[in-house]
Amino acid sequence: MKHSLNDSLLKLGEERKPPAEEQAIAGIAKLQTDIMKATNPHLRGQHPKAHGCVEAEFTVLPDIPKALQVGVFQYPKTYKAIIRFSNGKSASDLDPDVHGMAIKVFGIKGKKALPADDSDVQDFILIDNEVFFASDAESLLGFMMARVAAQKNPNAVKEFMEKSEHNARTVALAQKALKKELPSPLAVPYWSTVPYKFGEGAVKYSVKPAESNQVAMPQPPSENYLRDAMIEHLTKQQKQAVFDFYVQVQTDAETMPIEDPTVVWTSLEVKVATIQIAPQNFNTPEHNKRCEESSFTPWHALEVHRPLGGINRARKPVYEASSVLRHQQVS
Ligand code: HEM
Predict the structure, then answer these.
(1) 288-291 contacts, C-beta under 8 A, 24 or more apart
(2) Is the CB of 125 under 6 A from ligand 1?
(3) How far apart are CA 86 and CA 101, in angstroms?
(4) Ligand 1 in reach of 36 Cβ (< 6 A)
(5) Which of the residues 78, 123, 132, 237 has an alpha carbon 20 to 30 A from that of 152?
(6) Which atom of ligand 1 is nearest to the CA of 190?
């Protein structure tokens, strides 16, 4: 596993860019847009299927530790938010997959991570797996290329795995991230997997559902049962859904690396906010259109919450290209 990328001691929150990263990122961006161009209409390059976009409130708690009163979390306040729940890849909810929870909080003032960003939003993007499967941009590109090659050569992924232990681990982690049984998008925990700046330090984010969000698996589940579960909860039963939002502070730069999101951090998670999703009818043509047209990216962030690490650096051009390509076709 590659933790420190050269010999000098790592500081907390410090990024270390590997030498060939830029070429790898360019390769990922090209592959990702090629994949999108093959679909008509062009949907999101990843997480194309939404289960719904809901309106929510994001409440920063009072009495959070002083060191964590940073940026969005500087003082207690309730913000308006929207949340898009999604599948990673699959059109059918019956297929094992990663699931996404993308939160957009409105009304956030302050210096942004991207100078051109004049919006008032802070996005938090999470999946229902504690780690990301690829340690860095180069490993991700190798894996993506093997997947593309597998369309013509059924042994391509096996050949990629046989090249190194690192490749074999990447494929194993990608498979392990695919969850089979998920009763509802409202009933599971989510993690950022990758780190973010938090003032002077660094954190990962996570979100955990309240006990009252739990439901049983539908029997038998249908291809769209995850949207149906949200409709049942929020619209038919008129029940609210609640999540707690946590930050996990990096306390050791070597064992909780910035540049390798395949490693689980072991520090405590601290609750800093709650998310309330009130009963609502989100499954309307207008809501669904707004959901499709929305763009979430980890780079919609305050400078004090800037995305960190190679996978986040790779996401900058890729999410932008994906969003531009999607919006070109509707304009
Ligand atoms: C370099 C690695 C990654 C690449 C190339 C990538 C690629 C993409 C792309 C192209 C989109 C669609 C963007 C759009 O059209 O608006 C997307 C969405 C998404 N990605 Fe990633 N991603 C990466 C890493 C991650 C990581 C580490 C997470 C973990 C939280 C993640 C979670 C998501 C989620 C939840 C969405 C859906 C956002 C929405 O609802 O609009 N991705 N990704």
Answers:
(1) 288/50, 288/52, 288/53, 290/53, 291/50, 291/52, 291/53, 291/84
(2) yes
(3) 7
(4) no
(5) 132
(6) 30
Contact yes or no for 60/75 (Cβ under 8 A): yes
100 pocket-lining for ligand 1 (C-beta < 6 Å) = yes
| Beta bridge mates, 130 | none
Q: Which of 36, 47, 131, 282 to mutate to test the pocket of ligand 1 (most atoms within 8 A of CB)?
A: 47
**Model pTM greater than 0.85?**
yes
Q: Give the pLDDT score at 37.
A: 87
Cα–Cα distance measured from residue 275 to residue 208, given in angstroms and rounded to the nearest whole number: 10
300 within ligand 1 shell (Cβ under 6 A): no
For the domain bounded by 21-132+177-330, which CATH number is listed? 2.40.180.10
Residue whose pair of structure tokens reads 């490693």 in the numeric block: 263
Distance CA 127, CA 173 (A): 14
d(CA 215, CA 236): 14
